[in-house]
Amino acid sequence: MSTVNATDMDDARPAAAAGKGPILSLRGITKTFPGVRALNAVSLDLYPGQVTALIGENGAGKSTLVKTLTGIYLPDEGEIVIKGKPVALTSAHDAFERGITAIHQETVLFDELSVAENIFLGHSPRKRWGMIDWKAMHERSKSLLAEMGIGHVAPDTPLKELGIASKHLVAVARAMSIEAEIVIMDEPTASLSHKEIEDLFVLIDMLRQDGKAILFISHKFDEIYRIADRYTVFRDGEMVGEGLLKDASQKQIVRMMVGRAVDQIFPKRETEIGAPVLKVDGLSHPTEFADIGFELRQGEILGFYGLVGAGRSEVMQALFGITRPSAGTITLDGKPVEAKSPADAIDAGIVYVPEERGKQGVVVDLPIFQNVSLPSLRKTSSNGFLQLAEEFRLAREYTERLDLRAASLSQTAGTLSGGNQQKVVIAKWLATRPRVIILDEPTKGIDIGSKAAVHEFMGDLVAGGLSVIMVSSELPEIMGMSDRIIVLREGRIAGVYENDGSLDAETLVSVAADIGEEAAA
Fold this sequence. Notes:
By secondary structure, this protein is an alpha/beta fold. The chain has 19 helices and 22 strands. The strands form five sheets. A six-stranded mixed beta sheet has the order 6-7-8-3-9-10, sandwiched between helices. A six-stranded mixed beta sheet has the order 16-19-20-13-21-22, with helices on both faces. Helix 4 crosses helix 5 and helix 5 runs parallel beside helix 6 (194-209).
């Protein structure tokens, strides 16, 4: 695959430092976690007076890169260069001192402090003897807010009284107050309205005019092409493309994001698809999703794909009774299901393997056998008393089927690897003998070998007549394992596709990101 490169600046952008080299460069940055190489020898350049968009699928390594730039992670290999000098960012404070600040989707500010205190936290103006100069802090905050066009926000207002958009603006004011030269914006528009996004873009233009180097992370292509000068594309922890946006079409960038031979990585077992088992019609929630309707057939793996915030997990949690939909019907084997709680869903035959297995899937302080038997206590009890031998028998039956690697079934779940924890969660729900199993990001954060074991067992499930809904952000997994694929965008179904060999990854990404054919051409 070719890499799009360019050296000239986009003349349409009012870059404040035309002709200058990068203020920050990453060279050969590698970061490895147990079983996972999150970053593999990546490079990145940020230029003063320019916005660089960092683009990639979920799991491409973007978050790890941000944490490396902000001193939270130390790279295993590679070099960080600021203003031509190699530096070591050993802490968040160290990054802050070197002029790097980050504005996240979830603003990292303090609700109980005032606007002014948040803006100048850690670098308050001082009087003699080191006392905080509250008057100077208030005046400087007022001046900054006025300069940004939000003078109506009083510096002494408690932050908790502001909305999400105003909190983002306070975070921008903080970046301007420390005279940060490098500003990282990680999905800053995810919770904002259209008008609030436009207001934020005005401020980004202000930062650009002021010579700041800005790293802008977003899944939304319209925003990327609206605000960015340059792009860098990550895929599977590697940098696969960079250049000027004016020289690259959306179709080219999508191809960089997804360029993998998925049929070779995820061979799928052929199974006979039967009649519909689960029917969902008009399922809606006041804030998360609307008018969701689909059928799941016996022996089928139905994939759900979408970008961050598309509503995939929220729909699954409604099916499992974690949240209550405001409208719609759910039918299983022709019988209506009213899942007012997870217990109702389990009794009906629907189980859910959550994305956050450490928080929602396993009880880390309990042994493996008790984790597996937890939803099946009626099977392992007699006259109201738990039968230890039955708990062990049940746990052994299902963990052996999943090839669980553990010293014993008495080992606590928290001591297992991520992949083996996932196997415990799946074993727990299979022991209930469900009709439908929902797998939400089933291989997130686990090593390649464990991924292969989970995929193989998914094939066993459908071969045995079980029906599977799989939510995944990994395109190879979605395309390699699914019989059909539903794409969600902003809480609604944007497309339904038979995975018959003619479907390509670019189509899914384009639909998920709302890129029209004319834009992708």
